[in-house]
Specification:
about 475 residues, alpha/beta, Lyase, Ornithine Decarboxylase, Chain A, domain 1, TIM Barrel, 2 domains, 9-stranded mixed β-sheet, 8-stranded parallel β-barrel, 12 helices, globular, binds pyridoxal-5'-phosphate
Length: about 475
């Protein structure tokens, strides 16, 4: 998405450079509720508060950079998804978006299930008390050891991703005297309207078994023959950061088509259909996500209609939102280190983190917003680029955004909507220490994932 609106008003040059920005907002102090966690507001001093705690004291207590997560917002969103889908559907939170033991406990308490895609995620889920039968195990190359642990612990389902894996899981289950509940992940040939690198259901990619050419039907045939497996349904995940429901419509149509083939060929009606995740959130004021109840209604209607047309019993639906639950609930709090105006271009604002705590801008050209949060300012807007401290010119957190022109070292800025795919994708590039996740709730803050230390780094370096 590239917008080239040239805003009126103060700016560095007569013509602004190419970029992603819209016009500067009328008031930079106003926080757009759409992109911020639910309890975020500014107090009388102009300092941003969340969960009743102001960011200046959060920075003093926990340091920067830090991911600040609004527990009430997380629980509220999880509950909204749960309620929207009701008792005839299951909501699996996609753990890869962000997983910690606190999050697992909240999900458990709010009645959600959990997707994991590695032994590490499975261990985290089990250690926080998520019942195994509410866990789904994903991945295109699960190791034998991971499969064994998943089956042994009694996970509710394993989502099979290849012909080899069908046999592998069946053998392991059988050797353990189990019959493992499984789904088969299919690719339906839908390319979600999103960035190419995060679209995952067009056929030329590593996940799933293509419906095209009868491959998925053949996979079903094999799975049904194996004693170690109980095939409970078909899985489809079409992409990420999707706003347009038409992709799901086509996917559901094609998956139901496969259910019909299975019924006609084998006389079995598979009881479940999983439509995956990928629902979009607002990263900037230009994004307009749908509410969970609208999504639930649309998806349920699509599946019901398709099944009626195919004269099939409507299967139990499951969905796997990750970003849509956790994404909006957190922001990253940074301290400004340097402010470097480049004449005729923009002002580079360096913060104390960067691509190690948020790789999405570099990886997907993702768009974010940013605000000065340690004070209000009436200074004119300046076109800024928020960059990190890494030795890489692509180390950009927010490509184009307006910040007040009196921004100075020591100010705190926050980048909203960093709850998903930021801490979970964080790295130690340049041996920078990964930031903590601080949860705020009702005037209190607590660390749920602590900041990494140099000892943590050196402990792995055993040479
Ligand atoms: C990544 C993923 C999800 C979650 O995607 P979001 O965009 O975070 O909603 C759900 N299901 C599967 C299989 C995934 O790979």
């Amino acid at each position: 998405m590239s917008r080239s609106a040239h805003p009126a008003g103060p700016r560095h040059a007569d013509v602004l450079p190419e970029g992603h920005y819209s016009a500067p907002p009328a008031d930079l102090n106003t926080l757009d509720a759409k992109v911020w966690a639910q309890t975020v507001t500014r107090n009388a001093d102009g300092v941003l508060t969340v969960g009743g705690v102001d960011v200046v004291s959060l920075a003093e207590q926990h340091g920067t950079p830090a991911y600040i997560l609004d527990e009430a917002d997380f629980r509220g969103r999880a509950r909204a998804w749960r309620t929207a889908f009701g008792k005839d559907a299951d909501v699996f939170y996609a753990g890869k978006a962000f997983l910690s033991r606190a999050v697992v406990r909240w999900l458990h308490e709010e009645g959600l299930n959990l997707d994991v895609c590695s032994g590490g995620e499975l261990a985290t889920a089990l250690s926080a008390g998520m019942p195994a039968d509410r866990i789904a195990f994903h991945g295109n190359n699960k190791s034998t050891e991971e499969i064994r642990r998943a089956v042994e612990s009694g996970v509710g389902r394993i989502v099979l991703d290849s012909f080899q894996e069908i046999v592998r899981v069946a053998h392991i289950a059988q050797s353990l005297g189990r019959r493992q509940r499984v789904q088969i992940r299919v690719t339906v040939g839908v390319e979600a309207h999103t960035h190419e690198f995060i679209a995952t259901a067009h056929e030329d990619q590593k996940f799933g078994i293509p419906l095209a050419g009868g491959q998925a039907a053949e996979a079903v045939r094999r799975a049904l023959q194996l004693d170690g497996l109980e095939l409970i349904g078909i899985h489809s995940h079409i992409g990420s950061q999707i706003f347009d429901m038409s992709g799901f419509e086509v996917a559901a149509h094609r998956v139901v088509g496969l259910l019909k083939v299975i019924r006609d060929e084998h006389g079995v009606e598979l009881p479940e259909i999983d439509l995956g995740g990928g629902l979009g959130i607002a990263y900037t004021s230009d994004d307009d996500p749908r509410e969970p109840h609208e999504i639930a209604k649309a998806l349920t209607e699509i599946v019901t209609r398709e099944c009626e047309a195919a004269r099939l019993r409507t299967p139990r639906i499951s969905v796997e939102p990750g970003r849509a639950i956790v994404g909006p609930t957190a922001f990253t709090l940074y301290e400004v280190g340097t402010v470097k105006p480049l004449d005729g271009l923009r002002t580079y604002v360096s913060v104390d983190g960067g691509m190690s705590d948020n790789i999405r801008t570099a990886l997907y050209d993702a768009e974010y917003s940013v605000a000065l949060v340690s004070r209000a300012s009436d200074a004119e807007p300046m076109l800024a680029r928020v960059v990190g401290k890494h030795c890489e010119s692509g180390d950009i957190v927010v490509k184009d955004a307006f910040l007040p022109s009196d921004l100075a070292p020591g100010d705190l800025v926050a980048v909203p909507a960093t709850g998903a795919y930021c801490r979970s994708m964080a790295s130690n590039y340049n041996h920078v220490l990964r930031p903590p996740v601080v949860v705020v709730r009702e005037g209190e803050s607590r660390v749920v994932v602590r900041r990494e230390t140099e000892e943590d780094l050196l402990r792995l370096d055993v040479g």
